[in-house]
Write a structure and sequence with these properties.
By secondary structure, this protein is an alpha/beta fold. It has helices at about 1-20, 35-45, 60-70, 80-85, 100-110, 125-135, 150-160, 185-200, 280-285, 305-310, 310-325, 340-350; strands at about 25-30, 50-55, 75, 90-95, 115, 140-145, 165-175, 205-210, 220-225, 230-235, 245-250, 255-260, 265-270, 275, 275-280, 290-295. The strands form 3 sheets. The chain has an 8-stranded mixed beta sheet, covered by helices on one side. Strands 3-2-1-4-5-6 form a 6-stranded parallel beta sheet, with helices on both faces. A two-stranded antiparallel ribbon has the order 14-15. β5, α6 (about 125-135) and β6 (about 140-145) form a beta-alpha-beta unit. The longest helix is centred in the first third of the chain and has 19 residues, at about 1-20. The protein is globular. The N and C termini lie far apart (about 70 Å).
């Protein structure tokens, strides 16, 4: 027992020292002080001990408050001060969606590594401008905040699907009414981007849109064709925010993978057939469902936090690590979003 306790104690010491020894050399800046930034992004930056030299806001009053609250970070409302500071290597951007494109372009032109929340721009034409500008600065790390690409559940799902014979998928992304902006780029960008990330380039085979009289609620049905799989998506704001749902089902030759709200992932195996005869009708064997990933709300560690499970932690950590190691590991560059924005563009044209 004493030997076991000594091993456990040594493990905890190594783990704690690893955390304390994490030191990033570069300076960073954050443009934005909204609720999403404060609640989700700042805590991760703080946990990682990232050195924020500036936080950019919209007024001198806020700037003064930031300088006091986040000392020694400097609060400012002048973005040009940040862009011209050679000590600042990377910039986080999380402001009003309509300003993302202009700020992203400024950051690239001033040779700053860029993490920008989605949507990085409004349409495919703006995205092409960002792609062209980023290609002029091949040394820059760019990361668009599509956190689902970085979720630990995504990593496990990719591993399990690697050797599977894919058949089809069904993706339901259901929320309440959305009136704050463009629902396609603000809300539905996530599921559309996720399926193109998982299965590659897609073409629209079918589309149907249902709207209410006020145009505040809508449901979009899509049939997408990828290289090795076809899928049906139901994207809707005609449900409820209190019971919002994200459910992803992938049908393969060996069985069915089901994910719900990026908290649980299961696999239900299929029983074999003989000469096209389904053996399950004859032998009545029990269906086996394996849990591949599950939410653990009992132990309050970072790996069980929703910020971690959704992928926010990993995307920021990878952005910082890429800059510090001068190695581009970004899974969400501007160019990787091209097919997603082409699909969005097609839906926009269909709506009009």
């Amino acid at each position: 027992m004493n030997t076991l306790n000594a091993i456990i104690k040594k493990y905890k010491q190594v783990r704690n020292l690893q955390y304390l020894n994490t030191e990033y050399q570069s300076k960073y800046a954050f443009i934005g002080i909204g609720s999403h930034a404060i609640q989700n992004l700042y805590p991760i930056i703080s946990f990682l001990n990232v050195s924020l030299k500036y936080i950019v806001c919209t007024s001198s009053k806020k700037a003064n408050m930031i300088s006091k609250l986040y000392y020694p970070t400097i609060g400012t409302y002048d973005i040009d001060i940040v862009l011209q500071d050679k000590e600042v290597k990377g910039i986080f951007v999380c402001v009003d969606r309509e300003k993302h494109f202009d700020i992203a372009l400024k950051c690239l032109k001033n040779n700053k590594h860029l993490f920008i929340e989605k949507p990085c721009c409004h349409d495919i034409e703006q995205l092409k401008i960002l792609i062209n500008e980023s290609e002029k600065h091949k040394n820059l790390i760019t990361c668009v905040g599509l956190q689902k690409r970085y979720s630990p559940l995504t990593k496990k799902l990719c591993k399990w699907l690697k050797n599977e014979n894919l058949i089809s998928y069904n993706y339901r992304y259901l929320t309440g009414a959305y009136v704050e902006g463009d629902v396609l780029t603000d809300i539905f960008l996530h599921p559309l981007d996720y399926v193109t990330f998982m299965f590659g380039k897609a073409n629209i085979l079918g589309i149907e849109i249902i709207k209410d009289k006020s145009n505040r609620q809508q449901t979009i049905f899509l049939i997408l064709q990828h290289d090795k799989i076809k899928g049906i998506l139901e994207l809707s704001t005609s449900y409820s925010w209190s019971n919002a749902m994200e459910k992803f089902s992938i049908n393969t030759y060996n069985g069915i993978y089901e994910m719900e709200n990026f908290s649980n992932l299961t696999f239900t195996s299929k029983q074999r057939t003989f000469c096209s005869i389904p053996l399950e009708k004859i032998f009545r064997k029990p269906t086996i469902t394996k849990t591949l990933f599950s939410s653990n709300n009992f132990n309050p560690i970072i790996q069980n936090n929703q910020i971690y499970k959704q992928g926010y932690f990993n995307e920021i950590q990878q952005f910082i690590t890429s800059i510090e190691q001068n190695q581009n590991h970004s899974r969400s560059t501007f160019s990787s979003l091209e097919n997603t924005y082409m699909i969005l563009d097609t839906i926009h044209k269909y709506q009009s």
